[in-house]
Amino acid sequence: MINASTTLYAVIGDPIVHSLSPIMQNWFINQFNLNAVYGAFHVKNESLRSCVDGVRAMGIGGLNVTVPHKEAVISFVDALTDEVKLLGAANTLDNVGGRITAHVTDPYGFMESIRDKDRFRGASVLMYGAGGAAKSVAYALSKLGVEQLLIFDLVTEKASELAALSQNKFAIKSASALQKSFAPMKEILAHTHIVINATAVGMHPFENKTVVDHYDVITSEHFFYDLVYNPGVTTFLRMAAEKGAAVQNGLDMLIFQGLQSMRIWTGQELPLSETQLNELKNMMKKQLGIHE
Questions:
Q1: Same domain, 117 and 244
Q2: Domain count, the chain
Q3: What is the pTM of this model?
């Protein structure tokens, strides 16, 4: 029951009406018996500073921050974690006594979603995409012990910038940008057994598209990870699975990055059992209209 001691958390963005965060975070609140409630607020750019000041004024426990505010919001807070300083973006604000700290939970969501972490240690990874999500994944890959990262993006300059950041700041031993017209993509795919899609290609309603051209070289030694979770099985994943590859979509990452926010706000470990995870995933698939 909501009372005067109930803590308010929320997600802000523009737009915000389609956010799954209230469904997911209120599920966490219920599962872990927290005296809290989670809402959603449509906040435009010109109101962002006032919004953060309002968090202080009203004692709101914390915010999740989604597009387009992840970069701009860090100008209005009191402290940044090391990860936020490295990545230049935040998706979680924690308010402790009026002092607001910006965090980013996406890398932790990716890492916790990976069951076989040994697969990544010392490995080479091919990643499609060089945007904000790809940056968080690259940082996570460094923490998982990846030694080589190959990045392809339609904007080569973005791929080059992320490669430099990955090598110089994230300490990945070797990181480089690929130019599709010059890179031997078929040979790279054959010998790089972890392939990640960090783009929106294949997302609903463009389910028939995929970033990969050469599925004929994919084998059971490959692992394909798609940050897209709607549809549940993208063309990127389906065609790899048909060749025997292990595949995973981005729904677990979405869940675990949200759970990491709740851990930050509450200071509690909040362990999620396999049964709980599956229950939440089924509920979110239903909300998304995903049929597998």
A1: yes
A2: 2
A3: 0.96
